[in-house]
């Protein structure tokens, strides 16, 4: 058996670690392959099974949108929770295991829901209703768990490859396994299991496929969980009544109420790291007490314990010196007048009038308008969901990447979700609502099968291209590779609008694999590189020392990228049906994909991939109200 991958909690140490072998990388990514083939194969059968159970198409669309909607609100919470998980099994593996159990449960409920209803209520109307409910819950559970499990898996990969100079290779294999999982899923569903011995044993096609998925996923799940050997996160608890003091060397001293010991904690341990040029150690703010929230937990392997008596004496001396320096500096800057008579005489009525004239009516109006808008913005912000608040509070570089990721996923999912319907109706001229024995229904089924082959080619192209992304990023750069992937996708969508031949349409579909490969690789590479230089790339949110609930670790940042993916599915589920009904043509699917592909290409050009680009961007902004630590930071 290959040697396990020891994954330690993220620290500020930037010492290079031992690179991972190819076998280790493949085993770490094996669960990604399992999630993909379960999702792709499962959702090939779920829509027909829902329709056969008597559910309408509109309600079916709502059911298929529930999973991404739950992910959008829950996954960011899961990401932050995994960053602070203190289980003895590690930070990521407990979440991976729980979601995997949920996915396995859904794979059992979906094909056997009807039999569970009969077993519970016998042959009657109640058993059929229970079977439909279980099928619906199983579909939502499969959609939710297969997507939510991606976030701790991605964070696990980032933890494993940090400071190994293997980010490109790690997420290249991640993209490769995603594509391989899609290929396996579509291949399993395309085979006729009903006439085989497996089909005769399980009873029908659906039960055979889902049973096979259970066995394959168990193998991939245990391969990843066993190969990843995470060290548990060691907590150092801070009581709610403790005080936090800032020392001259930019460290925080935690003064406990036990009067026994204090904890010295670096500024960089609380929330985002700070840049070296933005120091809080001013003479007049030494040992300034900061209140701690009950949920604040400090994680630091280099926490030094100090004797309480020495800390108290040092703080008293520093406080006295600070007060003396503060008084002397204030006296130098603002000399105190011994008599207010001269000042009163100098301040004549005419001078007062001139000063008052400076505050014009326009200035007052501007202040009033600014206050009104600030008040409204604050009220709106307070009622926003925590997921949206976290997106608004993310660093500049991550915000730009997340928006580009959202536009890219909206374009690709508009193609992936509706491509088979597009081929069946527009290319073959079929009708999904026609009688099952009619010619139009036969044409539609033919188109759906042909569209499935197009998606299979899409996965093949993505898998092949993923193998070259690492070298392309080194040769042409990350941004150029990302831009090429989405540009090729956009051109394929435009070509698909002009094509009316099934073979040509499938060729265009195969070209979309370039965009999918880059989208499942490059954003995660960038997030990992941001974390390796967090004090630079996250310098625009300095001093936001935060609690464990809103601290952005790997899990939280990966959840932000995944939220863009979930949001794209939710929006498409809500609006694409109305758009097609309004336009009267399924070409709207491809048009929307092309439009968002163009927008994503523009957004990719604004993504920050290097220190030089961030410095140039901050210089171009020239906002005097923002700290200039990003601009002044020394590029080592």
From TrEMBL:
Keyword Transport found: yes
Gene3D superfamilies recorded: MFS general substrate transporter like domains
InterPro entries: MFS, MFS_trans_sf
Superkingdom, natural source: Eukaryota
GO molecular function: sucrose:proton symporter activity
Localization, UniProt: Membrane
Entry coiled-coil feature ranges: none
Family: Belongs to the glycoside-pentoside-hexuronide (GPH) cation symporter transporter (TC 2.A.2) family.
This protein's name: Uncharacterized protein
Species assigned in the record: Owenia fusiformis
């Amino acid at each position: 058996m290959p040697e396990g991958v020891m994954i330690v909690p993220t620290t500020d140490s930037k010492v290079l670690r031992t690179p991972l072998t190819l076998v280790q990388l493949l085993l770490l990514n094996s669960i990604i392959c399992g999630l993909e083939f379960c999702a792709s194969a499962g959702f090939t059968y779920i829509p027909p099974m829902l329709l056969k159970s008597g559910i309408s198409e509109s309600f079916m669309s709502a059911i298929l949108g529930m999973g991404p909607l739950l992910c959008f609100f829950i996954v960011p919470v899961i990401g932050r929770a995994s960053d602070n998980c203190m289980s003895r099994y590690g930070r990521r593996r407990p979440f991976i295991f729980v979601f995997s159990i949920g996915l396995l449960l859904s794979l059992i409920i979906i094909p056997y829901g009807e039999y569970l209803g009969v077993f519970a209520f016998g042959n009657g109307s109640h058993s059929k209703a229970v079977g439909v409910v279980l099928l619906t819950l199983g579909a939502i559970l499969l959609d939710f768990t297969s997507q939510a499990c991606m976030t701790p898996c991605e964070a696990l990969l980032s933890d494993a490859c940090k400071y190994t100079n293997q980010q490109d290779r790690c997420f290249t294999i991640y993209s490769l396994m995603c594509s391989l999982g899609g290929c396996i899923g579509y291949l399993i569903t395309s085979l006729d299991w009903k006439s085989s011995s497996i089909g005769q044993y399980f009873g029908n096609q659906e039960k055979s496929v889902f049973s096979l998925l259970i066995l394959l996923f168990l193998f991939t799940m245990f391969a990843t969980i066993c190969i990843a050997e995470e060290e548990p996160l060691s907590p150092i608890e801070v009581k709610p009544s403790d005080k936090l003091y800032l020392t001259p060397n930019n460290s925080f001293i935690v003064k406990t109420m036990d009067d026994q010991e204090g904890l010295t904690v670096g500024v960089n341990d609380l929330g985002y790291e700070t840049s070296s040029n933005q120091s809080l150690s001013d003479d007049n703010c030494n040992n300034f007490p900061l209140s701690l929230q009950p949920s604040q937990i400090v994680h630091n392997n280099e926490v030094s314990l100090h004797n309480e008596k020495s800390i108290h004496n040092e703080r008293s001396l520093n406080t006295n010196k600070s007060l003396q320096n503060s008084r002397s500096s204030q006296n130098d800057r603002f000399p105190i007048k011994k008599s207010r008579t001269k000042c009163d005489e100098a301040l004549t009525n005419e001078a007062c009038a001139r000063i008052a004239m400076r505050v014009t009516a326009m200035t007052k109006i501007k202040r009033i308008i600014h206050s009104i808008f600030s008040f409204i913005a604050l009220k709106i912000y307070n009622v926003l969901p925590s997921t949206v608040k976290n997106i608004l509070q993310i660093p500049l570089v991550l915000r730009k990447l997340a928006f580009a990721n959202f536009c890219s996923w909206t374009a690709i999912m508009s193609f992936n979700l509706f491509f088979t319907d597009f081929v069946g109706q527009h290319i073959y001229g079929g009708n999904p609502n026609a009688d099952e024995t009619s010619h139009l229904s036969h044409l539609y089924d033919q188109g759906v099968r042909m569209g499935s082959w197009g998606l299979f080619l899409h996965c093949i192209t993505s898998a092949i291209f993923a193998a070259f992304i690492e070298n392309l990023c080194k040769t042409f750069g990350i941004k150029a590779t990302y831009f090429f992937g989405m540009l090729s996708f956009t051109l394929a969508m435009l070509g698909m609008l002009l094509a009316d031949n099934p073979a040509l349409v499938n060729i265009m579909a195969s070209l979309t694999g370039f965009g999918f490969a880059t989208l499942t690789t490059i954003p995660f590479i960038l997030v990992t590189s941001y974390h390796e230089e967090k004090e630079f790339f996250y310098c625009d949110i300095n001093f936001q020392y935060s609690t464990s609930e809103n601290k952005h670790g790997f899990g939280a940042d990966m959840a932000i990228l995944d939220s863009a993916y979930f949001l794209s599915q939710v929006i498409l589920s809500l609006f694409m049906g109305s758009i097609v009904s309004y336009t009267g043509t399924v070409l709207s699917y491809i048009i929307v994909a092309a439009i968002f592909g163009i927008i994503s290409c523009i957004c990719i050009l604004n993504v920050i991939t290097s220190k030089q680009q961030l410095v140039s961007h901050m210089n171009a902004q020239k906002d005097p109200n923002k700290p200039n630590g990003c601009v002044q930071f020394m590029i080592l």
